[in-house]
Amino acid sequence: MNSRGAGESSAMSVAKYDRAEELKAFDDTKEGVKGLVDAGVVNIPKIFLRPPDEIAEKQQNCHRNGVKVPVVDMSGIERDDRRREIVEKVRIASETWGFFQVVNHGIPLIVLEQMIDGIRVFNEQDPEVRKEFYSRDRMRRVKFNCNYDLFHSRSANWRDTLTITISSDGLDPQELPAVCSKKCKEKRRNKEKEKLRFERFVKKSYRNKCRGNLRTEKKEATTEYKKHVTELGFVLLELLSEALGLKADHLRSMGFGKDSTMVCHYYPPCPEPELTMGASKHTDPACLTILLQDQIGGLQVLHQNQWADVHPILGSLVINIGDFLQVMSNGKLKSVYHRVVSSHVGPRISTAFFISGTSTDSTRFCGPLKELISEENPPVYREFRVAEYIEKFMSEALDDCSCLDYFKL
Questions:
Q1: Is residue 279 a contact partner of residue 342, using CB atoms and an 8 Å limit?
Q2: How far apart are alpha carbons 241 and 260 in whole angstroms?
Q3: CA 64 → CA 67, 235, 301, 305, distances in Å?
C-alpha cells in the first residue's frame, strides 16, 4: 500500500511519528541511502521529505534556457599572453558566477574515470565492508556516513558520502578502503559464474590494451587523483591571486592548498525525486572547490536568483569559490549557493576536493587581505579563526543561512 494514500488523520500520523527515533534507526543500519534502495523502497522515508514550501520552491526558477556556467579552456597556460587571457576569464567568472568549468586542465581522462569508478565500487560492494568505515567521528580521517548533519537538519538528503581528510603530512594509502584488495576480489570471484568471469576478463583485456589498466585499486586511484588535483589546485590559486591583482604565489604562500578534504558523494536513484534533494542549497566551507562529476547531471548553481544547471562536460572539472576566498577577497569573488536535485536516474557520482588551510589550527585566522582593503574599500567581514567557522558550519544544517552572515561587520 502507498502510505501517502492512506486515510490516517494527520493527528494520528503526528502522534505515531517520532522523527528522532526514525533518524536513529536509519543511522544504526550503517547502510545509508544505498541500503534503502537495495531494500526496494517505493516511498522515501519521512526523514527525507522536504516541507511543502521547499518542494514548491524547488520547482521554481529552474532550468534557465540558454544560461550556461562559464567554461575556461586552460590550454596554452604556459604562454604569458594566453595566461593573461585565462586569468581574465577566471576573474570574470569568479566575480559574476562564483562557478566555472575548466577543460584542458592537464589531468588525464583515465585518472578522472578511475576516481569515479572507485567511488562506485566502494558504495556497491558488500554493505558489511562499508560499515567498517561508517562513523560520525569528525577526527577520523577516512569515514563513511549519510548526511553529516543528519540529526539537526530539517530534511535528510538522498546521498551517501565517503570523506577523506588529507593533512599537510600527506595521505596514507593504508587508511583508504581496499575495495579491490586480494581478499575482496576473491570473495567476488567466488560469487560469480564462470561465464561472467570470462566475459569480464575479455572486456578488461581489450580495455587494457586501449587505455591502460582500468582495475586500478581504489586506494591507487585515489592517491593518483589526489596528486593531480592538488597540482591543479595550486595553479588555480595562482590564477585567482593574479585575478585579485596580487602576486601569483600570494594565496599559496598563506598555506592554502596544504590541507584538503575529498568528499565523495554517491546519489542512488530516488523513487520520489520531487519530494527530496540530493544536496540542499549551500556554500562551501573552503577556499576553493574542485568538483569531479559523472555525466548524469543534477548540480545547479544560483545565479541572478535563478537556478541554472551545470551541464557535465566529459573530462571537465567544476570550480567554485569557497567562503574563505570570498572573505579574503573582501567580497569581490563570490561564494554562491548551489545544490543537487535528486533523480530517478542514478547513481550520480561526484567528488569535491576542498582546498583550505588547517582547520584544526587554533591560531589560523581568516579575514579580508590587507592588500585589498582601504578607506574607499573598507573590510566587509571581521577576522575570525578558521576553526571557529568550521565549528559553526558543522553544528548547523547544510541549508541554514550562509555562515558568512555571522562574520559580517
A1: no
A2: 19
A3: 6, 31, 11, 11
Taking CA atoms, 110 is separated from 123, 150, 159, in Å, by: 20, 34, 25
Nearest in space to 274 (alpha carbons), one of 329, 218, 343, 324:
343
Q: 3-state DSSP call for residue 327?
A: helix
Angle 344-346-350 (CA atoms, 0-180°, nearest 5)? 130
Rounded to two decimals, the pTM is 0.85
Task: Supply the pLDDT for residue 351.
Answer: 97
Q: Residue 236 and residue 231: Cα distance in Å, rounded?
A: 9
Q: Which residue spans within 129-171 are E strands per DSSP?
A: 142-145, 160-166
Got the DSSP string for 161-230? EEEEEEBTTB--GGGS--TTSHHHHHHHHHHS-HHHHHHHHHHHHHHHHHH--S---HHHHHHHHHHHHH
Q: Order across the sheet with 277-282: list the strands.
A: 277-282, 338-341, 299-303, 306-309
Q: How far apart are CA 331 and CA 62, in angstroms?
A: 26
Is pLDDT at 3 greater than 80 in this prediction? no
CA atoms of 219 and 115, how far apart (whole Å): 9
3-state helix, strand, coil in the chain (%, to 5): 40, 20, 40
| pLDDT tens, position by position, 216-242 | 455 678 889 999 999 999 999 999 999
